[in-house]
Amino acid sequence: MEEKCFLLILSLTFFLITTKANGAPPSSLANAYVALQAWKSAIKSDPNGLLRSWVGSNVCAYKGVFCADPSNEMGDLSGPVVAGIDLNHGNLKGVLVQELSLLTDMSLLHLNSNRFTGTIPSSFKDLYALSELDLSNNQFTGPFPLAALQIPNLLYLDLRFNSFSGPIPQELFSKNLDAIFLNNNFFEGDIPQNLANSPASVINLANNKLTGSIPLNVGYASPKLKEILFLNNHLTGCIPQGIGMWSDMQVFDASFNSLMGHLPDTLSCLEEIEVLNVAHNKLSGELPDLVCELRSLLKFSVAYNFISGFSQECTKLYDKNVGFDIALNCIPGLEMQRPQPECSLIPGDGLSCLRLPSIRPLACGTLLQSLNSSAP
Predict the structure, then answer these.
(1) SS3 14
(2) What is the pLDDT of residues 116-167, one digit of tens each?
(3) At 181, phi and psi to the nearest 5?
(4) Helices then strands, each counted (H, E), the chain
(5) Coil vs helix vs strand at 259
(6) Per the domain annotation, does 15 fall within a domain?
(7) Cα–Cα distances in angstroms (integers) from residue 236 to residues 150, 170, 259, in the given order
(8) H or E element, residue 132
(9) What is the C-alpha separation between 150 and 122, in angstroms, rounded?
(10) Is residue 26 part of a domain?
(11) Are 298 and 322 in contact (CB under 8 A)?
(12) Given the DSSP bridges, would you call strands 43-45 and 163-166 parallel, antiparallel or unpaired?
């Protein structure tokens, strides 16, 4: 109760001090003072003394608070503003407060590696300048924070290593985000079918409890997409043939799931792929020859599956110093394979993966035209 009274008095005092006779609004730094003091009062533990400098009205002198003067570039005479807050690795314990929405000039908020709890206040929708929000490695809980999707100019969203749960909203992949990090939470349910709508260059959904299959249209994602990680979920079904459309993809990791069926030949169209990891699934069939010829491969793992054979081209990967792991499959005559009883019944042997017939040698451009013409 005393804290609430203090904050109310604080807000009124600064409103009266900074409001002119003509009714002009408070200055940006006055608003920032109110916001930061309100937040400081909601932080219950500061073992590193990070907030000791958060005293007085000169918020630009606060540790972790960075100011900028837009008048230097834009002719704006309003003076300096709080442009960013970086309290990474502060070990702070507390919550985020509604008053932080007063920091309308803030472009980045980095709170990695603290002990913040709760979730994102709904008032964050008023943070018009915010482009980077990093809440990773904290103790946030509850469903996906929809308030993050209402921040109008957000480009970078990092929620990894928290305890968020429930489904991932499809609105996430309609946002103009360049980076999406949701890994190491407790998100569950299907991956939204509009994943391909995202313009992001990095999407990390690893280490959650996601079920269902990889969306069939996932290959129609933005050509900007460089990395996508599905590893360590509960995904089933096939690896879509359309992933061959990711001509600039560098990392694809779908390991530690329950994916079945054959690897699609279209993987050979990933000319820039460096890490291709589908280990610890239930994949079967032979490795496509062309996949083993990928020029940029640094790591290729199909370990712990039910692969039944591979060609001479794949053996050349060892000579190229590629991290090629094919252990514990079902390849006759090869060492470190599954015992025969495990290979007598291939999981998903009758599964149809809706593969389009392809011409050999695989012409990736022709293939992509075919996939485009058959797209839903």
Answers:
(1) helix
(2) 999 999 999 999 999 999 999 999 999 999 999 999 999 999 999 999 999 9
(3) -120, 105
(4) 6, 22
(5) coil
(6) yes
(7) 32, 20, 5
(8) strand 132-134
(9) 9
(10) yes
(11) yes
(12) unpaired
For residue 216, being part of any structural domain is answered with: no
* Pairwise CA distance, residues 358 & 366, whole Å: 9
CATH code for the domain in which residue 57 is found: 3.80.10.10
C-alpha–C-alpha distance, residues 302 and 324, integer Å: 8
Among 207-211, 294-298, 302-306, the least confident range: 294-298
Token readout for 273 is 């792929």
Q: Which of 244, 258, 246, 248 is nearest to 210 (CA)?
A: 258
Residue 341 tokens, joined = 């009883």
How many Å apart are CA 180 and CA 203, to the nearest integer? Answer: 5
Are 134 and 153 in contact by the 8 Å Cβ rule? The answer is no
DSSP state of 23: -
Enclosing domain of residue 68: 10-120
pTM exceeds 0.85 for this model: yes
What domain count does the chain have?
1
Contact yes or no for 307/283 (Cβ under 8 A): yes
> Which run of H or E residues covers position 367?
helix 364-373
Amino acid symbol at 97: V
Q: Give residues with Cβ within 8 angstroms of 85, minimum separation 6.
A: 64, 65, 66, 103, 106, 108, 109, 110, 111
Residue 81 lies in a domain: yes
